[in-house]
Amino acid sequence: MSDSLVIIPTYNEKENIEKIIKAIFSLPKAFDILVIDDGSPDGTADIVKTLQTSLGREASAVNPPEQGEIGGLFLLERSGKQGLGTAYILGFKWALERDYEYIFEMDADFSHDPKDLPRLYEACAVEGYDVAIGSRYVSGVNVVNWPMGRVLMSYFASKYVKFVTGFNIHDTTAGFKCYRRRVLETIELDKIRFKGYAFQIEMKYTAYKIGFKIKEVPVVFVNRVEGTSKMSGGIFSEALFGVMRLRFDGWFRKYPKLPVK
Prior knowledge:
The chain is α/β, with parallel strands linked by helices. It is 38% helix and 15% strand. The chain has eight helices and nine strands. Strand 2, helix 2 (44-54) and strand 3 (73-77) form a beta-alpha-beta unit. Helix 7 (197-210) packs parallel to helix 8. The radius of gyration is 17 Å and the shape is globular. It starts with a strand and ends in a 9-residue tail after the last helix.
């Protein structure tokens, strides 16, 4: 069993899921993978089940691989699309029930490069940060093959969050992250209210308000080549108005105390 778990929410990712799993398992460092599939009608979950058999991995934690070996492949299936945020919350709780020290968020479509996982891991495990963010904007604008409108919307959304909240992070909507276990143990996961882009903002902002150390690790974001984007205008609307609510909460909400190391 690895000390690290990569959580990958999926909906209709049959073109990418096998490739991304094999890419992660090919890394020098061992990472376990938890796929959370929202009833994909294209058979994404079936592909994962086939890989569990062909790679010799089981869906349960029985006889997990030893440290340093290829990680375990696990699958949770849900009925219908229930939102990105709820998928990650489920995955966080699953990880906390086990012995994972480092828990990652990652997309299935290769917009997040698996080769960057060890860099996020190192920021937390070696450099001592509590949260590592794979940042598109900490060293310029590192986005490939996105329409200009999407680039501008995403970039200025992060600027907007920074302006409204005073939260000094360049890429507040980033979905490529590593959390140390103690962060997810401290954040009151059942009180995280948002499901889309605002979920990513809320998790970072909550970690910041508690006092956790956060580092942005520069990455290059590449727009998906295969499959269909799940982005929608409603997701950005949630982020726009959700940020105002986060700022209001920041004035009055009592956040959990930073745990003693």
